[in-house]
Amino acid sequence: MTTPLMPHTLQWLPADGSAPQQLMVLLHGWGASAADMAPLAQVLRQQFPQCAVLAPEGFEPVDGTGAVQMAGRQWFSLASAQGGMITEAERPARVAAVLPRLAEWLRTAQAATGVGPQATALVGFSQGSICALELVQRHDGAAGRVLAFAGRYAALPDAAPRETTLHFFHGGADGVIPVTHAKAAIERLAALQGDATIDIAEGAGHEIPPALLRCALQRLTSHIPQRTWREALGAAPARAGQPGELDD
Question: b vs e for 212-237, b when ≥16 Cβ sit within 10 Å of the residue's Cβ?
């Protein structure tokens, strides 16, 4: 893969030139850029040297909300049609509008790297997490895992993905997307018998602190998806993981 899969896509491939065995797609937050995900990409590459890591740019320039103007990118606008910040009622439609383009980008990335959906992980932060969660909600199995840092659902789901495992990571003192959204998501997914886990770093804000990054690496290396258990044992789906649990 010698050219970007889309303009300004950052990409890191196996250093030995071999074909990637896994694909991790990093989706940045509102007002940020692909370059902001580079430190996370380096950590993932160290842990998974045979992985391809891609960090696309948000599809739109930030349009600003009120007097706020930024030079970064966004996946969807936070400006309300009524003025000010987006409302809860407006958010689902904004996210839904970007999903077809994101789904097509993901399929292109998978074809270009030769990595299938089940070996693909979407790793999002904030607005990127929202998009990742909603993408697999609409396209179950488009990725084998979602790692949602400081994210939330645009609207809580009525059904849980069966082919995608969801991992939530949140700061207990997040003032941008309160941890209550992640807790509500895990409770809903548990009721729907979804395959999901949650880790909370008390005192952390809207960020990816080292403690949650360590949790993410452990989830990636030790959590056996419930679909794998179902296939091997014919068992019913287990309840979603409870806060702070780490899988052995």
Answer: bbebbbebbeebeebbeeeeeeeeee
